[in-house]
Design a protein that fits this description.
Layout lengths: L16 E2 L2 E6 L7 E7 L5 E8 L7 H15 L10 E7 L2 E7 L10 E2 L2 E2 L2 H20 L12 E3 L5 E3 L15 H7 L5 H4 L6 H17 L9 H10 L5 H4 L5 H10 L11 H25 L16 E4 L35 H4 L4 H22 L28 E4 L30 E9 L4 E4 L7 E2 L2 E7 L1 E9 L2 E10 L4 E7 L5 E5 L7 E4 L2 E6 L2 E5 L2 E8 L6 E7 L4 E4 L13 E2 L2 H5 L9 E8 L4 E4 L2 E6 L2 E5 L2 E8 L6 E7 L4 E7 L5
Parallel strand pairs: 13-19, 20-26, 28-34
Antiparallel strand pairs: 1-2, 2-3, 3-4, 4-6, 5-6, 7-8, 9-10, 11-12, 13-16, 14-15, 14-17, 17-18, 20-23, 21-22, 21-24, 24-25, 27-31, 28-31, 29-30, 29-32, 32-33
Amino acid sequence: MPETTGVPTVTTTTAPRVNRLEMMQELPRGSMGTVHKARSTQSERVVALRQFAAPQWMDDVDDLLRRIMAEAQAANTLQHPNIVPLLTCGYKDFTVFMTSEFIDAPSAREFMSSTRCLSVSEVVSVAKQLGSALDYAHSKGVVHHCLTPNNLKLLPDGTLKVLDFGLFKHRHLLSQTAAKKLENEPYLSPEEIRTKPIDRSANLFTAATILYELLTTRNPFAGKHLGEVDRNITDVAPYPLNLAHPRVPEAISRVVLKGLAKNPAERFQTGDEMAKALEGAMQGMPMRAGAMAARAPSSQSLPASDVGEHTIKISRPAFVTAGTTTPPTPAKVKPGTTQTKAPSAVAKPQPTAAKGVPWKLVAAGIGGMLLIAIAAVALLRRSPGASKEGTPAVQGVPVDQSGPAPAPPLEVRELAPKPGKPQGRSNKGTEADATPLPITPATAGLTVTSSPAGALVEIEGHPGQALRTPATVSGLPAGNYKVTLSLAGYASETRSVSLAGGTRAVTDVKLTPTKGTLSVGGNPAGAKIMIDGRDSGRLTPADFTLDPAVHQIVIRKEGYLDSETSIKLAAGQIVSFAPSLRVAGRTDNIKTVGGLSKMFGGGGSSGMARLEIRTLPKGVQIVINGTPFNKSTPVDIQLEPGNYDITLQKEGFKPVHKSVAVTLGDKLRIDETMAPQQ
């Protein structure tokens, strides 16, 4: 294979070197290959050197290498203050080398704990820089294939640096362990789970996931195994941030949740759009609170229903006849009725009376004057005797007949008077008795969470759409409820919850597992998975939820030897099985050695090895790499170097399995005594 320039040949000195680069320190492993801190022996520049191998067994390995180089070449053109530049990329044989600027700073992962977390304003700053970097790369036709918190570095001055632009992601290039895969899985988008190509929207979804974790110190899609994580990403609505962490404002929560919409069309379309929405939420929260306070009417101008079951009585001007004006005369008030006297429409303000009066009383007086004016207009349109019986809005008060016409108090009510009772209260009260209007029963809210998330929630007496944890239900009448949670692989749990009106209760349930999780991987990927002798219908890598028991697992792929194991799985346990399959030796050119060639010491062929098989009893059938051989024991055969699984079987005897690794020129012997079947 031609060698691509950009990474020179490997030399050996006192320290390990890759041409002109001296490797100084191996950095924590990621999901692809190894990464070293290295120094150029010529410029003394410190860089990050990544090495990974392309699988030689792939038929289209050359195409894969070309795609790796094309992605790196596109990323090499990126020049942005928040993007770490890719310096060089090349390959020698099947090993790919990439160098980029070395950033000595903590990753975003280190700021996702309760002991060391960024403030909300700092997270918004990170969002702005990350959105700018992604938008710039997308405008150049480059997407990030491996965006995780580990690829985001934060400098001491707050500058964000995005690593690994240009690192092409392919399932056959990944070298991550099961634990590392479980760590990175929550940062995939729903489209990636469904094996769709990574695009701009997928990058923005992952960015919103990282912001969620920076704000709340918890990942919205975390799970105990890959299947649970994938289900959370594709099907489960994230828990609101303001409920996940009390420091997050609700406005910020709404913005991030929009970025985590399952439908790409419902998300932000650019990183700048999301960053501006976060900035607006940060700036808008205090402004909205102030505006609400400024717009809120005083208690004196609120309707009676807003300040309780109050009846507000305001003195009304004297009745006016055509062409005459009658000065106001103090009215006699019924015993037990409290009256608030308002200034007459023609009375002049008295400075001495206003002295020392609180501003709230002044506001109350102004509000009273407005009500007087409205009432006066209404009264002028009606005859004094036209009031209908039973209307409590206007109530006459008897006055002294010897004087001018009195000013009976105008009683403004929101509530109807109780029938058969006087309209005044005892002298101890300041408000008129009234029959309250029907009051809507107080409602409550309920938030249900579970560990793990994604459990189905059923609330007794509240049927409706299916809810999965974390879930919040509002508008529940106060009372007692039974809440049942169920999840595949876990025992159902029921909790009794008492809800008081006007409150919100939180119920967190830890589910008890009844099944275990088996994570099957291996190299190469795409192998068939057999469980307990049955084809699972899935290929590696895959996760399974199984009953607690001992399970027989077989990994099978054409051109490779089967890998088989027994796994004892307990409830709640996560077990991984990820073997490296051995390339199977050829069976189409195996020949028998014997006859005259054996007698005279011949029969060997160059490039071949020799295997003698002897059994007791004789006549045992031989199966080599799943293919029956046309001779039975005893027999001598020649075969190419490689890996061979040999099965010896005969009716009435237990089969015998042997694995043989043959190298050039080997002369091996299998000698077995078959055991009778019981």
